[in-house]
Amino acid sequence: MSARTQCEERGVIQRECAAIRAQFRQADNGGRSHNLAKLLYVHMLGYPAHFGQMECVRMIASPRYSEKRVGYLGAMMLLDEKQDASLLITNSIKNDLSNSNQYIQSLALCTLACMGSAEMCRDLAPEIDRLLRASNSYIKKKAALCAVHIVRKVHDLGELFTKAARSLLTEKNHGVVHGAVVLITELCERNSETLERFRKTVPDLVQIMKGLVISGYSPDHDVAGISDPFLQVRILRLLRILGRNNEGASDAMNDLLAQVATNTDSTKTVGNAVLYETVLTVLDIKSESGLRVLAVNILGRFLLNNDRNIRYIAMTSLQKIVGTDHNAVQRHRGTIVDCLKDQDASVKRRALDLSLALVSASNIRSMMKELLSFLSSCPPELRSQTASGIFNAAERYAPSQRWHIDTILHVLTTAGGDVRDETVPNLIQLITNTSELHCYTVHKLYRALLSDISQQPLVQVACWCIGEYGDLLLRGECQETEPVQVTEDDVLDVLETVLQSHMSFPSTRGFALTATMKLSTRITENVDRIRSIVSIYGSCIDVELQQRAVEYNALFKKYDHMRAAVLERMPVIEKNSQGHINGETIKESQTVKVKPGEPQHLLFKRLMHSPWLNTDLKLMQPSTLSVFSVVATVTVYEKDGVTVTLSCEKQSDSGLTVTLTASNSTESDIRGFTLQAAVPKSVQLHMKAPSGDSLPARGAAKVTQMVVLNNPNKVQLAYLQLVSEVFDLSPIFYSFGSQNI
Amino acid sequence: MQFMLLFSRQGKLRLQKWYVPLSDKEKKKITRELVQTVLARKPKMCSFLEWRDLKIVYKRYASLYFCCAIEDQDNELITLEIIHRYVELLDKYFGSVCELDIIFNFEKAYFILDEFLLGGEAQETSKKNVLKAIEQADLLQEVRYTPNHSHVWQI
């Protein structure tokens, strides 16, 4: 095959295949096996060879061993159980299974075990059983593995082989015993009754193991001083299955396991393979605590092994028991953490999983140092997992709030692009609730923004903070950290840089604009600059930004008297889990749970400022900023067939009755429709019971609810925020007194 | 074991033994992707990796990669020993085996594998016994067939 290019090669192959095809068509000649072999080679190169299938079938039926041999090889390579032609060889296999020559029997057994379909297996199972009982060792060992394949294909046939499998255990030949152990393992895994029956073999298995471990050197089966490690490993695995959840069986094997664990030479891989299997067994059965400790210590030694493979499997095993044997694994924490620095990505991943599982209240500070250091240099595919792990650990074990905030900020600075969406609102909530650190936090975030505005989550939180606590920056004093000396312009510059940067996501720019707006009530001199920023963005191409700007503009112009109240400092937020389930776009699903007893004015603020709305201070459409006079009826919601209207009637100089009417024109009833309302602190509100709590379909009936408002202090402006668990209702603003806007 | 692949540093397949039923197309896809993944690994890295939902054990001997896909409960370290045993068998049979031996006598490589593993499991744990069986089978192959006899000489 000296073709130099792919194209040349294809040409050569084509010619060869044509020749082979021709040969196949000819009568029997001495070169058939040679040609089939050539075809199989061609097949391995990746070229189609299905025209050779029938030739395989023919060859298998040949009386010549050389032809049978290649024929069967061809069958294993070209005919899998999905091919129809595979059935054609069933008969040949059947005949060959009873051939007087064991090498021919062997070919049949090998092929059946490799590609036998369920149908073929059912057909030939009795033959295999016969061979399991009455043949020489050479055939018995193969028949046993053939039986394994049959059981995997047709589970019910397991019953057939149970008895034979049992008696094979008593044979001397290692190959046969090995096959028997594999077969018994398969039978026990498939059927719990069979497993019960085979538990009786535990003493026999223990004996066999003892023979291997203790008795002298056996040249035929020795591998670096270990006597038949392959058999040892299979027996240990079977013992694991038999000892699981069974005291008696576990007791019977306890001593043996201790012996193997102690005496097996661990300087070479082969010894470690046996030790590894032993450890797995000890940890899975009902072993004595002393034995368990021994097993975990072996894993600990594995962690220190120079061979990376050994370290890797040690960690895989430790991961399995970190829940049940936590303290034992903790003892090896140092070594595990060191593995974070390993060159191999698979080892790193294992070390990460384990390290995160080992974080506790007592080691949080030192562990976090390691994890943060890991985060800055870990492979990209592990960053997201590491960041989440760090956040979870921080939330559970943070020794102080300042540490918690610092840790989250560190992660956002290092791996901002790999954190989940809810990190931003979670962090905002944490910051808001840590009132003693507002000054510290806003300083830290301001400094972060000065150096880098590319990490979006960090920038978003920073903008939000500056918007909220910008006044603390301007004050020029801070207890927890070095204060900054900035002017109002400096702060506005930073926000404008974010607004204008091409690196900023649209959502980030939203944060920046809102923050700028909020500063209008926290600064004193530069309000005009803010006014002009807001007005410029009123014609921004981004619709979202434009809408905000227009609303903020309106807040400046028509509703300037409201501005201070609306942009006031946020109250403490309770985490609202409903705001972002199912990854829904938060703008759409603004369902907000009303907490019982929540002061009404706070409810309003929460709704307005909620970061989960992802739009921070998303004011209602300017058109819904409707203020109405006494007799007006306003439609406050109209969507998807549901309409809610509001009308009011002035009762007195300070009193107002509002009537809400809801109707539903869809085809199905809407249940659980309740309305709640929020008003400013000084306004008294009394909600009467609604006429019903479900809206019948097709407008069959309306539901009304009365709300009585009393404004004794004659507050200039009253607003009524309607909240429904189901719908997004806009607030209504009502102006008491003579000043009708 | 689900399958074993032998391939060169250039990604050329030298042997493929499948113990699970998959279509030709699937086999090709798996082979291509796995070969790529393994070849991309650096020399000192772990011999084990998780690929799709399989455990992969591989080891490089001279210019050939020996790569096995094993089940969840299978012991990775003993699989390395199985690979090593197979290499030893090839070595003993060919006398200091090299990649060319496997290219030009690929069917022999399969015969040896089939005498060592059956249905994905080890069938004979003694090196000597495997080699003896191959030797005998080879001899059988040499026996001439005479048209008047209906069966081959037994040895």
TrEMBL record, chain A:
<dbReference type="InterPro" id="IPR013041">
    <property type="entry name" value="Clathrin_app_Ig-like_sf"/>
</dbReference>
<dbReference type="GO" id="GO:0030121">
    <property type="term" value="C:AP-1 adaptor complex"/>
</dbReference>
<dbReference type="InterPro" id="IPR050840">
    <property type="entry name" value="Adaptor_Complx_Large_Subunit"/>
</dbReference>
<keyword id="KW-0653">Protein transport</keyword>
<dbReference type="InterPro" id="IPR016024">
    <property type="entry name" value="ARM-type_fold"/>
</dbReference>
<dbReference type="InterPro" id="IPR008153">
    <property type="entry name" value="GAE_dom"/>
</dbReference>
<dbReference type="InterPro" id="IPR008152">
    <property type="entry name" value="Clathrin_a/b/g-adaptin_app_Ig"/>
</dbReference>
<dbReference type="InterPro" id="IPR011989">
    <property type="entry name" value="ARM-like"/>
</dbReference>
<keyword id="KW-0472">Membrane</keyword>
<dbReference type="Pfam" id="PF01602">
    <property type="entry name" value="Adaptin_N"/>
</dbReference>
<dbReference type="InterPro" id="IPR002553">
    <property type="entry name" value="Clathrin/coatomer_adapt-like_N"/>
</dbReference>
<dbReference type="GO" id="GO:0016192">
    <property type="term" value="P:vesicle-mediated transport"/>
</dbReference>
<dbReference type="GO" id="GO:0006886">
    <property type="term" value="P:intracellular protein transport"/>
</dbReference>
<keyword id="KW-0333">Golgi apparatus</keyword>
<dbReference type="InterPro" id="IPR017107">
    <property type="entry name" value="AP1_complex_gsu"/>
</dbReference>
<protein>
    <recommendedName>
        <fullName>AP-1 complex subunit gamma</fullName>
    </recommendedName>
</protein>
<keyword id="KW-0813">Transport</keyword>
<keyword id="KW-0968">Cytoplasmic vesicle</keyword>
<feature type="domain" description="GAE">
    <location>
        <begin position="629"/>
        <end position="741"/>
    </location>
</feature>
<dbReference type="Pfam" id="PF02883">
    <property type="entry name" value="Alpha_adaptinC2"/>
</dbReference>
<comment type="similarity">
    <text>Belongs to the adaptor complexes large subunit family.</text>
</comment>
TrEMBL record, chain B:
<keyword id="KW-0653">Protein transport</keyword>
<dbReference type="Pfam" id="PF01217">
    <property type="entry name" value="Clat_adaptor_s"/>
</dbReference>
<keyword id="KW-0333">Golgi apparatus</keyword>
<comment type="subunit">
    <text>Adaptor protein complex 1 (AP-1) is a heterotetramer composed of two large adaptins (gamma-type subunit AP1G1 and beta-type subunit AP1B1), a medium adaptin (mu-type subunit AP1M1 or AP1M2) and a small adaptin (sigma-type subunit AP1S1 or AP1S2 or AP1S3). Binds to MUC1.</text>
</comment>
<dbReference type="InterPro" id="IPR011012">
    <property type="entry name" value="Longin-like_dom_sf"/>
</dbReference>
<dbReference type="GO" id="GO:0006886">
    <property type="term" value="P:intracellular protein transport"/>
</dbReference>
<dbReference type="GO" id="GO:0030121">
    <property type="term" value="C:AP-1 adaptor complex"/>
</dbReference>
<keyword id="KW-0968">Cytoplasmic vesicle</keyword>
<keyword id="KW-0472">Membrane</keyword>
<dbReference type="InterPro" id="IPR000804">
    <property type="entry name" value="Clathrin_sm-chain_CS"/>
</dbReference>
<dbReference type="GO" id="GO:0035615">
    <property type="term" value="F:clathrin adaptor activity"/>
</dbReference>
<comment type="similarity">
    <text>Belongs to the adaptor complexes small subunit family.</text>
</comment>
<dbReference type="InterPro" id="IPR016635">
    <property type="entry name" value="AP_complex_ssu"/>
</dbReference>
<protein>
    <recommendedName>
        <fullName>AP complex subunit sigma</fullName>
    </recommendedName>
</protein>
<comment type="function">
    <text>Subunit of clathrin-associated adaptor protein complex 1 that plays a role in protein sorting in the late-Golgi/trans-Golgi network (TGN) and/or endosomes. The AP complexes mediate both the recruitment of clathrin to membranes and the recognition of sorting signals within the cytosolic tails of transmembrane cargo molecules.</text>
</comment>
<keyword id="KW-0813">Transport</keyword>
<keyword id="KW-0168">Coated pit</keyword>
<dbReference type="InterPro" id="IPR022775">
    <property type="entry name" value="AP_mu_sigma_su"/>
</dbReference>
<feature type="domain" description="AP complex mu/sigma subunit">
    <location>
        <begin position="1"/>
        <end position="140"/>
    </location>
</feature>
<dbReference type="GO" id="GO:0005905">
    <property type="term" value="C:clathrin-coated pit"/>
</dbReference>
<dbReference type="InterPro" id="IPR044733">
    <property type="entry name" value="AP1_sigma"/>
</dbReference>
